[in-house]
Amino acid sequence: QVQLQESGPGLVKPSQTLSLTCTVSGGPITTNYYYWRWIRQPPGKGLEWMGAIGYSGSTYYSPALKSRTSISRDTSKNQFTLQLNSVTPEDTAVYYCASGLVATFASWGQGTQVTVSS
User: Which residues face 81 on adjacent strands?
Assistant: First the structure.
């Protein structure tokens, strides 16, 4: 069973870059046909898919966030990371990493609260 754990700062200042890491255990992030995703949930709103990195290293982004988002991976550490540039208070949310085969979200991290505030 794959397990995921998000880590990163809980407070980010406006205009700065939000960086989060998802550490994966229970299987390599290069496992064929698996996708490794970032999802967020702002307060009082629904889940928003932000982007993903596939087993081959290909990346996919939400059109709404593409200009500010970068997802990368470190296969030696079995981690993948999210960078969101030029954050505003509207980026305040619980951020989740998740994984699964295409169009599935079988495993989730517990989520990490990120607040954007000066």
Answer: 21, 72
